[in-house]
Amino acid sequence: MKREHFHVTMNGEAIDVKYAYNSALRTIEATVRTVAQKRNEEFNLHASEGTKDEGGRYVTGMRVWRSPTTTLVFNVQKIG
């Protein structure tokens, strides 16, 4: 089976490429923690969705994290 690659973006800017969907989600959570610490704000998950292929594997996903002053929009897209 060919290795899958997932492109992770934050507010439209590329931040990472991961080999598994769950790993991409962990990258998003780590990035949110880093941004929260730098800004001294608390972020809450506002929206979350994912799309699966016919085999039941995720191919795209979206997460929106919000603080009182900032919105972070993350997208995960399977490439290749």
Key structural traits:
80 residues, alpha+beta, 5-stranded antiparallel sheet, 1 helix, 49% strand, elongated
Query: How helix-rich are the residues, as a percent range?
Result: 10-25%
| Global mean pLDDT | 95
User: Given the structure, what is the number of helices?
Assistant: 1
What is the radius of gyration? Answer: 13 Å
Ends: how far apart?
A: 13 Å
- Listing every helix as H and every strand as E from the N terminus to the C terminus, the arrangement reads EEHEEE
Main beta sheet, described? 5 strands, antiparallel
Strand content: over 45%
Number of strand elements: 5
The strand order across the widest sheet is: 2-1-5-4-3
What is the molecular shape? elongated
Category from helices, strands and their pairing: alpha+beta
Low-confidence stretches: none
